Amino acid sequence: MKIIITQKEAVDKGIWTEIMGMFGVTKEDEVWGNEEFILTEEQARHVGLIR
Questions:
Q1: What percent of the chain has pLDDT over 70?
Q2: What total of structural domains would you count in the chain?
Q3: Is 24 helix (H, G, I), strand (E, B) or coil?
Q4: What angle do CA 50, 18, 31 make, to 5 degrees?
Q5: CA dihedral 37, 42, 16, 20 (to 10 degrees)
Q6: Torsion sign (Cα): 45, 1, 3, 39
Q7: How confident is the model at residue 26 (pLDDT cuts 50, 70, 90)?
Q8: What value does the mean pLDDT take over residues 18-37?
Q9: Which residues of 31-49 are buried (b: 16+ CB within 10 A; e: fewer)?
Q10: Rounded to the nearest 5°, which phi and psi values hold at 5?
Q11: Alpha helix ranges (H) inside the chain
């Protein structure tokens, strides 16, 4: 299973820093609020999106 989350959703859920680390995004990178990130089931569990 794959989980898609946008940058804005990640910020709202308080997991943006973890998503940044998973995808190698730095604070200097330009990221739009509607930019989507595809997480594996394991990654989604790690950040608490699913159980």
A1: 100
A2: 1
A3: coil
A4: 110
A5: -70
A6: positive
A7: very high
A8: 97
A9: beeeeebebeeebbeebeb
A10: -135, 140
A11: 7-13, 16-23, 41-46
Please give the Cα distance from 11 to 16 (Å, whole number).
5
Tell me how far apart the alpha carbons of residues 28 and 49 are, in angstroms, rounded to a whole number: 26
- Residue recorded with tokens 């940044």: 20
Strand 36-40 to 2-6 pairing? antiparallel
Structure tokens at 28: 């200097």
Q: Which residue range(s) make up the domain with 38?
A: 2-47
The predicted structure's pLDDT at residue 37: 98
